[in-house]
Amino acid sequence: MKTPALSKETFLKVLQLIQEQDQINHDFSRALQTVGNGFTAFGTENRFYNSLMLVLDEIFGDKADYISWWLYEASDDYTVETVDGSQKWDLREPEALYDYLVEEN
Q1: What are the 10-residue block averages of pLDDT along the chain, 105 residues in total?
Q2: What's residue 104's pLDDT?
Q3: Which residue, among 18, 25, 27, has the nearest Cα to 44 in the 3D structure?
Q4: What residues contact residue 47 under an 8 Å CB cut-off, 6+ apart?
Q5: What is this structure's pTM?
């Protein structure tokens, strides 16, 4: 297992901050919609977010985009498995995502 250039603690903090900023963006966008015509979108094409994801992808070799999946699209049980179903990983906790990225990528 290769040790990534980012500690687990920093990775967890980054995920937390992304989630907090997403909530702020969501709340701000909802507030804008109350004074706009309903077509207002805030936070799309955020270059800070995009650059951060590029760095995380590079650090972890996250070719399958698991970090973004975990943040926005994960199934309710946060489970990933091999194509043949012979191995499964429970990634509900961000610590498990970090371990998975380190071990499998």
Answers
A1: 84 96 88 75 79 94 93 90 91 96 88
A2: 86
A3: 25
A4: none
A5: 0.82
pLDDT of residue 61: 93
DSSP sequence for 32-65:
HHHHS-S----STT-HHHHHHHHHHHHHHT-TT-
- Give the pLDDT of residue 14: 97
Instruction: Please state, as a whole number, how many other Cβ atoms lie within 10 Å of the Cβ of residue 60.
Output: 22
Q: Measure Cα distances from 67 to 33, 45, 47, 84, 103 in Å.
A: 29, 17, 17, 22, 14
What letter represents residue 33's amino acid?
Q
Rounded Cα gap, residues 38 and 23, in angstroms: 19
| C-beta atoms surrounding 64 within 10 Å | 13
Tokens describing residue 75:
């199934």
